[in-house]
Amino acid sequence: MGGGATIPARDRLIVALDVEDVAAARALVATLGDAVSFYKIGMELAYGGGLALVDELKGGGKKVFVDLKLHDIGQTVERATRQIARLGADFLTVHAFPQTMRAARQGAGGLRLLAVTVMTSYDDSDLAEAGYATSVADLVARRAAQARDIGIDGLILSPQEVAPIRALVGPKMTLVTPGVRPAGAALGDQKRVMTPAEAIAAGADHLVVGRPVTQAQDKRAAAEGIVAEIAGARRA
Ligand SMILES: O=c1ccn([C@@H]2O[C@H](COP(=O)(O)O)[C@@H](O)[C@H]2O)c(=O)[nH]1
């Protein structure tokens, strides 16, 4: 799952299980079948009891990414990370603040950590509104370099930053991009987006896709279409 060209196309797609409870998640996983090998459990499902699914999905041969975006005082982040590591997931997200990342590193053991740089629903004006006197591009780069130096395994960033950040952090960090929309799909609240083929061509390792699959009329066909687009993309 590192930053390499050897990952099968199917394993590059991570479907966000953004549903309200375990029953809905199980139904979605059953519908998608072998079209999807990698799932993300985020806040909505986790707060609906979904962390119990980590073990179940892993037992079914799937890879699992726990997207809780931890951010708290150091002791809390370290101890929460240690608890999540016991679940057996493949990845956990934490916000890319140095204190937070160092604490998570202490608690992670073998759990791989992804640092969330700047949410893909933000643009420069959102950062300005929040009091940051910097552009998205510069803040992503600053946080990516800090994550690399702290020993974080990978980054969450938009596909638009993948090429410059790959050049900055080198080949080892895993670059995971939400903000992915097949051509013509609704953007929803995402602001920094690319298509699956563009994201892969830029050098992304994994693409997180939620609504374009979970809200599609034919969910399995939507997932298969994205995997086919990934397979056909020319990697950087
Ligand atoms: O910067 C970020 C970090 C995480 N996400 C998560 O990815 C999915 C995207 O869902 P879509 O329906 O494809 O927009 C969702 O679970 C987010 O919590 C992100 O979008 N951006």
From TrEMBL:
Annotated Gene Ontology cellular component terms: cytosol
Gene3D superfamilies tied to this protein: Aldolase class I
PROSITE patterns recorded: OMPDECASE (PS00156)
Biological pathway: Pyrimidine metabolism; UMP biosynthesis via de novo pathway; UMP from orotate: step 2/2
EC class name: lyase
Binding residues for substrate: 18, 40, 67-76, 120, 181, 190, 210-211
InterPro entries listed in its UniProt record: Aldolase_TIM, OMPdecase, OMPdecase_AS, OMPdecase_bac, OMPdeCOase_dom, RibuloseP-bd_barrel
Keyword terms of this UniProt record: Decarboxylase, Lyase, Pyrimidine biosynthesis
Catalytic-site annotation from UniProt: 67, 69, 72
Subunit and partners: Homodimer.
Protein name: Orotidine 5'-phosphate decarboxylase
Organism field: Methylosinus trichosporium (strain ATCC 35070 / NCIMB 11131 / UNIQEM 75 / OB3b)
Recorded name of the encoding gene: pyrF
